[in-house]
Batch of 3 targets.
Target 1
Amino acid sequence: MKKQFLIFTSVLFCAITFAQSVPQGINYQAVARDASGDVLMNQTLTIQLSVISDTTTSAISWQETHTVATNDFGLFTLVIGQGTTTTVGNSLTFDSISWGASNHYIQVEMNGVDMGITQFMSVPYALQAGNLGADSTMVANIIAASALSQTSVVGQYKYGGVVFWVDGTGQHGLVCSIEDQSSGIQWYNGANLDVKAMREGAFGGASNTERITGAQGSGAYAAFICAQYTGGGYGDWYLPAKEELNQMRLNKTIINTTAIANGGSSFTPAGYWSSTENDVDNVNAWVQFFYTGLQWISSKSVSNDVRAVRAF
């Protein structure tokens, strides 16, 4: 039987569940895979979590179990502190853990298999602030300032949209909106200007969009409606560059699933505008056909679909 293991995605989120002024849990998310690296899709798993206060003696402060179900991508979430206690540990309740007394670690077991130990960093000290009598606003501010490393995976719903690309650290990447911003709109604002929106790669669409809107002004055209979009409460959306658009198309299936689950909609099979101009003239820009994946240049006056993106 293959040994199962976890790939931690956003191991300890900075969001905390509050009960009055004292936070009662830490959001936790992971992707479950088998020994071959294949995700464990749509499976029920038993997760045991142990908060350890001393790795030399393996002294357990708190231990709990969760029964979780993975989704189509092997992803599951839970809240540390809201599982079923095993009664193992020297703390009677999760909120009575003395976080400030020593360094603390989290040990994860899945279906009885030890997955390893990870040190808590700044989130537990925000929990300690609750023990010191801080109100929930103060604690939330401490949590927001946490330097705890967070990683992301393609298909997650976060940062206002769906993650469709991440860099090698897993801490930076791109998300797209959960819905189209237009089902047919021109690239330009009525004039074929050479705005030098030539960037093609990751994060390049932001520069392209600034150039386009700076030259074309306000109006009903692709880059401008992306720049005006405020989905998820964010105001830094832009029209994707050519390769950013291609990454969206490559991951369209998982994007569609997450988008629909969060009130959005699927990509259409039609053409979507990129923000990248053709480099030989000022009358064409790059489009991608989401049915076949084909990219081609099209007149800026043609109407195509639009899906905004943003960086994190």
Target 2
Amino acid sequence: MWADIFKDAGWESPKFINAMLDDGLVDDFYTHEVAEVRLDKWSSGRVALLGDAAHCPSPATGMGTSSSIVGAYVLAGEITKYTNPKTRLGGDDPVAAALDNYEKILRPLIIQVQDHASGFWVPSSPWGIVVFNSFIGIAAWLRLDVLGKYILREDVNWTLPEYDELKELKLR
């Protein structure tokens, strides 16, 4: 597959294709598609998905580990809040209610993370790839490091919740 895609790519592609397929220099070549997980729901009953299993952002976001850690914190906070005997939130099944609320709280952040990487920054058409590569190539040639502030933006319209229930657990 890769040999067909890159056969006319120019530069050193024939050398790489030959090394990959013919001359035995590479006996364990491995490749995998870049993917992003977008599920409609992250839980069912009392079972929840977390991190990459629930909302794996594209590697282009640079947010895989961060969103997983934030997700674990929100999930722990919601379960602790909803199963707290003092508050009795969630009715007959507080865990299922906590999982629903975990998703309601976290999904807006994850949508922003995933949407940031789509479009121009992760082109999906041949023309989009040409435009993207040309843009990045020109920026690199001109040493325009100011592009980083657009690529690596940190402003999101989301606030990390605080969980008093988790603070109480630390004190015990």
Target 3
Amino acid sequence: MKLIRRKLFHSLGLMIGVYALSYQQKAAADELQNTPQSPLHPLIQALRQTHKPVCLSAAQRLEKQSGSGEAFNLHLRSANLDISDAQLLANAFTLIQQQGDLPLNSFSVSYNPGIETGGVQVLLSSLPDDVNEIGMVGCQLRDDVGELLIRFMARSSNLKTICVEDNLFSASMRIQITSAGKKLENCVTIV
């Protein structure tokens, strides 16, 4: 009889323990589900999807500062980005702006020749009008991208620095980009 009672208490204790554990897991899952996502979550995911070390580091940085609402810098220099990576980032920028504000202060994809014209086109069209700084140094950009840059500069409301030197722009395109920069108040243009 003592053995049966002991086994019964042991079984009852196990059932209570399992119930308590599953209740804790459910509570933890509910808490995670109710935690508001950072507005930068789409960008953090896009950076991770590239599987590039520079982008993964940037994702970690953004995750730490995420939710602060403060303006941030996104510098992806020498990250070996290609057109598909640029498309991922552009989609994230667009999604964030549809949900609210994208507090992007400075953006650089310098030394990423793999982004090519198509990548620059989607990035420029997705960047917020009030970004302060753009860097696309050493990306082997040609005059067709120069035209895109000039259009971006024309719609920019707060551009203070644009660095696009060490590209393949013709002399006349460099003059046009410099001229577009002079139309912006206090904008430093390095071509």
